[in-house]
Design brief:
About 30% of the residues lie in helices and about 20% in strands. Helix 10 crosses helix 11. The strands form 6 sheets. Strands 1, 2, 5, 6, 7, 8, 11, 12 and 17 form a 9-stranded mixed sheet that branches. It has 14 helices and 19 strands. Bound molecules: zinc ion (ZN) (2 copies). The site of one zinc ion has 5 residues, from loops.
């Protein structure tokens, strides 16, 4: 058995998120997207924690589900299960530099969550943001969590983004060991983030024994599941943790990394976007204004990697590691974007939403449609151009403009 999990989410209590992000809406969109297990998000925020304790009930295996009053209608898709997981932001000096690192943190139950909140409240405001800023090092967050309960799990979030990540060009480190020191062995996984995909991470030797996971970091419900991880096994807390240790991942579903906001180097204000090879040749100054460019994810991976890219695409569209040591992955374009391109309209327009809803109602979850549905099944509901777009994206026939310095890239099916 396996289950699709999206474990980097936020509630309406985190900064820059949709005010409508509440438990029933999160559950409804998870089921539309085809996600079986989602993170509670933001559990250190007192108001959201209260909401979670009233709105979730345990179902065994340290996994939760919506309380009976919040359950959707019986004819809706089955609602997802929940795991207690959040994100914290660490800001601290180390080795003469200032570091900013985001970490995903998982806990088995509310008792542990309360103890974590007491410990973290001494290092930052838990009420200001669902993703609290802590004046604690990454090492000390991990040490604190393990001292409270050794079943806690810490995963460096969006590991390559320039700001706020373990390997980031602006506030990160050159290795997990530099960041976590003597506790590096307790890091069992990293989140690759939207701007990198697993094969880029296969090039980093210190990640050989570390699982690579992908989640959405959605700030609105519609963006849930834009990346997710399919774990092998049963969806229980311990099985999830063990899967990270064992690498028991069936596959991950990814953005095209070029679509992420920090794939190339660049300067947003000047509209400068360039491949790392250009930065290597001409230096890291913006050719228009002379300021320092934001060095992106591809550049960081090139500078820390010790191996060539070896990924191969199989006939079914899966990207595979030829050595067979790493789980395969898919690169996909969100269904809404495929429909928008096929119709020549904006992704948030009513016409796009109508077709999206019809496909979900008649064909299946978004995960099913973009990964598996046949051309005929899609074309029976939507225009043939939509169906052809889904198949083209699945097979990698796309045109790409890479993202840079906070600007999303665009990936359109050919
Ligand atoms: Zn983050
Ligand atoms: Zn500039």
């Amino acid at each position: 058995m396996s289950y699709a999990a999206d474990l980097h989410l936020h509630s309406s209590y985190a900064r820059a998120t949709s005010p409508s992000l509440d438990l029933p809406l999160m559950a409804r969109w998870a089921s539309i997207k085809g996600i079986d297990l989602i993170a509670s998000a933001d559990f250190t925020h007192p108001a959201w924690l209260d909401r979670l304790e009233r709105g979730l009930v345990p179902t065994g295996g340290d996994i939760y589900e919506l309380a009976p009053g919040l359950q959707p209608d019986a004819d809706a898709w089955p609602p997802p299960k929940f795991i207690l997981g959040t994100e914290v932001s660490c800001i601290y000096p180390q080795g003469g530099r200032s570091h900013r690192v985001h970490l995903l943190l998982f806990a088995p139950n509310f008792d542990v969550v309360h103890k974590l909140c007491v410990a973290f409240a001494a290092h930052g405001s838990l009420t200001a943001d669902g993703r609290p800023m802590l004046k604690l090092s990454s090492h000390d967050v991990l040490a604190t969590a393990l001292s409270i309960d050794d079943r806690c799990e810490v995963i460096p979030a969006h590991a390559w983004t320039p700001w706020n990540s373990v390997y980031g060009s602006k506030g990160g480190f050159d290795s997990l060991e530099d960041c976590f020191g003597d506790l590096v062995g307790e890091i069992h996984a990293v989140e690759t983030g939207l701007s990198s995909d697993p094969s880029m991470n296969w090039r980093i030797p210190e990640l050989d024994g570390v699982s690579l996971v992908s989640f959405s970091d959605a700030h609105s419900a519609q963006r849930m599941g834009r990346e997710f991880t399919v774990f092998a096994g049963e969806p229980t807390y311990d099985s999830f943790c063990q899967a990270l240790v064992d690498g028991a991942i069936d596959h991950t579903v990814e953005f095209f990394p070029e679509e992420g906001k920090y794939h190339y180097d660049g300067h947003r204000k000047c509209g400068v976007c360039q491949h790392p090879a250009v930065t290597l040749e001409r230096g890291d100054r913006c050719p228009v204004c002379g300021r320092t460019l934001t060095v992106g994810v591809l550049n960081r991976i090139e500078s820390l990697s010790r191996r060539p890219d070896t990924v191969q695409q199989s006939e079914s569209g899966l990207f595979v590691d030829p050595s067979g040591r790493r789980p395969p992955f898919r690169r996909l374009v969100p269904l809404e974007e495929v429909i928008a391109h096929a119709l020549g309209r904006g992704p948030s327009t009513k016409g796009v939403r109508t077709i999206y809803d019809q496909l979900i109602a008649h064909v299946g979850t978004e995960s099913h449609i973009i990964q598996h549905a046949t051309l005929d099944a899609i074309a029976a509901i939507a225009k043939e151009s939509v169906a052809l777009g889904v198949i083209a994206a699945r097979e990698g026939r796309v045109t790409i403009e890479p993202g840079y310095d906070g600007v999303y890239g665009t990936v359109r099916s050919a």
